[in-house]
Amino acid sequence: MNITNKTILVTGGGSGIGYEIAKLLKQQGNTVIIAGRNADKIKKAGEKLGITAIACDVTREADIEKLVTRIQQEYPALSVLVNNAGVANLYKLGEQAGAFQKAKQEFEVNYFAPLLLTEKLLPVLSQQPEAAIVNITSNVTFHPLILLPTYSDAKAALHSHTVALRHTLGKNSSIKVFEVMPSLVNTEATKDMGGSNGMHPQVVAEALLKGMQTDQYEIYVGATAQQRADYFANPVAAIENFNAGL
Q: Does this UniProt record's set of keywords contain DNA damage (predicted)?
């Protein structure tokens, strides 16, 4: 897929992976729009990158409707949607863990939001001669990390949905569906889970670009490819190794 002269929307673009994706895609000659919940943060990121920034809480349907309306009116050539916004709660399942409330928050951001935004923007994307949907998931799509139990649930659900969407659109659509699955990334959001030992978010952005350019629909970044191979070879051992010492 050609990733130049495209109009691209990146959610969660105020920092971390989303920011690096927006930065790299702009450098490729694209028109990039970023969206994020924190109005001040997303505005500053947009100013720094020299791109349009839109405040949008993707857990609010009204915010998504406003975002979609603005895209339709101001950016009718939108051809790439990157669903990157995410949230994770670090905890273990058990009594008084509050798993239900934590899962509700994580599914709202990590699963329901990309489903709704994607569906609302399909009419715009389908008008383009070449278009793409990119969902950022994780290495936990194949097996859970017990310190991120319901985050793992949400990313596994998004992985399943991504596969279904890809096969549904298939060859009868101009829309390609990509999934990016990074292992640990060093961002502000991962500092409490050892993120300083993770890869720089720029690595994820570069892998995304290369994967899209070569039509690699599942893009494994960092340790994910080996972890996936280990899981399919021996699921029980892989899950034990993935959670060793936790």
A: no
Cα–Cα distances in angstroms (integers) from residue 239 to residues 93, 118, 227, in the given order: 16, 32, 9
Query: Where exactly are the structural domains of the chain?
Result: 7-242
Helix (H) or strand (E) holding 116: helix 113-125
Q: What's the topology of domain 7-242?
A: Rossmann fold (3.40.50)
Residue in the structure block whose two tokens are 């839109």: 54
Q: What is the pTM of this model?
A: 0.96
Answer yes or no: is pLDDT of 194 > 90.
Answer: no
Angle between the 224-233 and 235-242 helix axes, to the nearest 10 degrees?
140
| Residue spans of beta strands (DSSP E) within 37-195 | 52-55, 78-83, 131-136, 175-182
- The catalytically annotated residue of 151, 217, 220, 231 is 151
Six-digit token string for 91: 């905890």
Mean pLDDT computed over every residue of the chain = 96
pLDDT of residue 195: 67
- Cα–Cα distance for residue pair 118/178, rounded to 1 Å: 13
- At residue 131, the 3 state secondary structure works out as strand
142: pLDDT strictly greater than 80: yes
